[in-house]
Task: inverse folding
């Protein structure tokens, strides 16, 4: 039963992600991406990490993808405008580097993650405790970074308005 | 790997039967109530405007929802030629689904005892209860946005764009407003929120700011007047469902009224004490046994129906907001107040705790 669920979720995730890349229509891409997030959330549920699963749906599927769709709808790209995208060698290098780094990171982490999966209890209390005690400084640093990003977008938006 | 979702109780068949019964009973109660609330909407609006309202079908017009449903089934189901077919057909289902899923975590009453086993009157008592509600109900916007986009026509498109901006904004207030409640209950589980209110005060009184913000945001999230901008009929014909007919249109309607019920239930759970009856404690409910469950169940539904009536009352009383007013109210008024409320709650709790 567990294996069946796992392959259902994992298979769904991979299929939805592939569909995101290969869909011709940006709106369909966005929808497949939401499906892929839902499948990821399902995998987190199977690890008993309910909080992470819910945050995955709440933040990515519920908020960020709505903004994606919002922008896609506002720009309203027609399919003929999309044909102009040329493959740039820089893109290939960037994607390749990212893939290499990620696979290195995952293979380094591999056994460690698997052995810890059992004690990963994603209860809100536990997550909050580790965030605000052990990882308080990195947590605040990340919030500062996000604040800087927000201010940056506001500044950029203002500048283009004045010009 | 332990999979808590699939761990059955000692008696798997009993567990399965109890859960299936709960799913069937609660879903049907809510769906019937949402059908009746359409009738209630027409009746209440009629009384408020000194008319009679629908009174031809059944005694006092009580069977009007059945007549409406029949009419929807027999209408021609038109799929306009210019739409994106797949999404056009999927959108009404996507609009209805989240509202139905959220019903799973709402506690309808105190636990029921059958054959010596205690059955909680909630389909899934998650320890992340409220986050689950927000996560799933935030998906409700896709139905509207996709309907607007797939219709491939100007007014639905505008309705869809408005809906996405509005619902994203007001989700933030919805989430922020309830932070104070969970700071004082120290649990995200909805049944814990209720039991703490049964023995203490209702959060409507101890968190009045949160209550007002939550109610305003609930109106915006369900696209009801004064915030029904995605379908504003005087500006956008019918907004996102302009191109829809027959049962597809009806599904948007059922989705809207089910979402209204869900938010009424949430208001009852979070702010009005859930199944609590004034001057009764958790021990009283336990002492009464299954009669306590019945009382709690009734009290919960009375609160839900009262808030549903409030929804309708407001709709026929207050005029619609303009879109910039809606955004200003959300981001520049409600959001700072909600943040101040969180800080205030923290200060008060810290002061009481030390």
Result:
């Amino acid at each position: 039963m567990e294996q069946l669920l796992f392959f259902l979720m994992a298979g769904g995730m991979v299929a939805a992600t592939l569909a995101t890349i290969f869909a011709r229509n940006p709106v369909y891409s966005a929808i497949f991406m939401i499906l892929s997030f839902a499948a990821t959330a399902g995998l987190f549920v199977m690890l008993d990490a309910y909080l992470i699963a819910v945050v995955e749906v709440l933040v990515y599927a519920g908020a960020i993808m709505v903004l994606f769709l919002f922008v896609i709808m506002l720009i309203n790209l027609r399919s003929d405008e999309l044909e102009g995208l040329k493959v740039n060698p820089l893109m290939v290098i960037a994607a390749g580097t990212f893939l290499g780094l990620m696979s290195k990171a995952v293979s380094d982490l591999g056994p460690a993650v698997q052995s810890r999966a059992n004690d990963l209890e994603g209860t809100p209390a536990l997550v909050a405790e580790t965030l605000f005690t052990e990882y308080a400084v990195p947590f605040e640093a990340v919030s500062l970074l996000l604040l800087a990003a927000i201010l940056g977008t506001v500044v950029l938006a203002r500048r283009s308005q004045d010009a | 790997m332990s999979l808590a979702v699939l761990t059955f109780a000692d008696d798997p068949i009993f567990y399965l039967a109890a859960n299936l019964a709960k799913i069937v009973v609660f879903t049907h109660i809510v769906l019937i109530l949402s059908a009746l609330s359409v009738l209630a909407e027409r009746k209440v609006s009629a009384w408020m405007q000194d008319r009679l309202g629908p009174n031809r079908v059944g005694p006092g017009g009580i069977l009007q929802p059945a007549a409406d449903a029949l009419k929807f089934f027999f209408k021609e189901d038109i799929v306009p030629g210019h739409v994106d077919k797949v999404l056009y057909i999927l959108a009404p289902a996507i609009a209805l689904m989240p509202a139905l899923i959220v019903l799973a975590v709402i506690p309808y009453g105190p636990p029921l005892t059958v054959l010596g086993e205690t059955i909680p009157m909630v389909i899934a008592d998650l320890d992340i209860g409220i986050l689950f509600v927000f996560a799933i109900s935030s998906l409700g916007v896709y139905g509207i946005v996709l309907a607007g986009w797939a219709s491939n026509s100007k007014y639905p498109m505008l309705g869809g764009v408005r809906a996405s901006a509005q619902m994203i904004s007001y989700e933030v207030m919805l989430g922020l407003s309830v932070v104070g409640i969970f700071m004082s209950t120290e649990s995200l589980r909805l049944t814990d929120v209720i039991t703490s209110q049964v023995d203490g005060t209702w959060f409507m009184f101890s968190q009045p700011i949160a209550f007002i913000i939550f109610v305003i945001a609930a109106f915006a999230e369900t696209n009801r007047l004064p915030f029904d901008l995605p379908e504003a009929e005087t500006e956008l014909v019918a907004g996102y469902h302009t191109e829809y007919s027959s049962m597809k249109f009806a599904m948007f309607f059922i989705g809207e009224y089910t979402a209204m019920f869900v938010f009424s239930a949430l208001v009852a759970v979070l702010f009005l004490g859930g199944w609590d009856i004034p001057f009764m404690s958790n021990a009283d409910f336990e002492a009464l046994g299954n009669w306590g469950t019945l009382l709690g169940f009734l009290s919960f539904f009375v609160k839900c129906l009262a808030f549903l009536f409030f929804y309708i009352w407001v709709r026929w009383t207050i005029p619609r907001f303009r879109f910039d007013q809606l955004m200003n109210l959300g981001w520049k008024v409600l959001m700072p107040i909600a943040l101040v409320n969180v800080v205030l709650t923290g200060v008060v709790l810290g002061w009481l705790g030390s």
